[in-house]
Every structure is written in structure tokens, then in C-alpha cells.
Design a protein that fits this description.
single chain; globular
């Protein structure tokens, strides 16, 4: 576990965001589980598509920079290719840190919370999707 925390802290420092922000994101998204997966079984990916997400920061494959496909389910080989990248905590932390950098506004009240809301629900404008 401390390795994931160290990885998170290093990526946050490189991105210039609070360590708390990146670590809180991994806690909220996966409870610090670098092998987290939604859905739990790959056999359900097509049914869940485009909401298939991987790793500690639960990056959604459909919108991953490494995915160049369209909106339709690309098949298990392409999902696994991208998933392998996001199961790597160092890669996933760097991507999540870059993503959060664009969502973090340090002068705004509740800046960490609002950045996490933007990360989890981009359409919500920094507001929570639910209580």
C-alpha cells in the first residue's frame, strides 16, 4: 500500500497539485486498489461500455488518451491493451494527476472536493452527482 501512496505523492508533486487531491481520488475511486475494475468481470465489458474503468484512479477506457477508437465497444483485446496500462500504478497516477491538474482551482472554496467532483462527474461543473 505504501508503494501506491509514494507513487501518488510523486505524481502529484510532478503535476504541481496537492498530494491530498491525488491520493483522495484513488481512495474515492478504488480504495487504493491498483487492480480495481468496473465491471468486475471482463465478460461484462460490452454491456457496461463505455463505463469500463480500470486501476486505482478508475480511468475510463473509452476516454483514455491511449484509446483511439470510436464510441462503440472495441472488443476484449483492445480493452485489455488499455487496461494493462492503467493497472500500472505509475502510469495511472501520472494520467490522473494530469487530469486533476485541469480540474483543480486552488483559490476556490472546497477546491479538493470540487476537483474530485469534476474528475468523477465532468458534466457536473464541480458539484457532486449525488449526496
Amino acid at each position: 500500500m505504501s508503494s501506491l501512496v509514494d507513487t501518488s505523492n510523486t505524481a502529484a508533486a510532478r503535476a504541481g497539485i496537492p498530494r491530498l487531491l491525488l491520493l483522495a481520488c484513488a481512495i474515492a475511486e478504488s480504495n487504493l486498489n491498483p487492480r480495481a475494475r468496473r465491471p468486475g468481470n471482463a465478460s461484462d465489458d460490452e454491456r457496461y461500455w463505455p463505463d469500463v474503468s480500470i486501476g486505482a484512479w478508475q480511468q475510463t477506457i473509452r476516454w483514455a488518451d491511449e484509446y483511439g477508437g470510436e464510441g462503440t465497444y472495441p472488443g476484449p483485446n483492445e480493452v485489455e491493451r488499455i487496461a494493462t496500462l492503467y493497472y500500472d500504478p505509475e502510469h495511472a497516477a501520472e494520467v490522473a494527476a494530469r487530469n486533476l491538474t485541469g480540474k483543480y482551482r486552488p483559490d476556490e472554496p472546497d477546491a479538493v472536493f470540487r476537483a474530485l467532483c469534476r474528475y468523477n462527474w465532468p458534466a457536473g461543473g464541480g458539484e457532486p452527482a449525488s449526496a
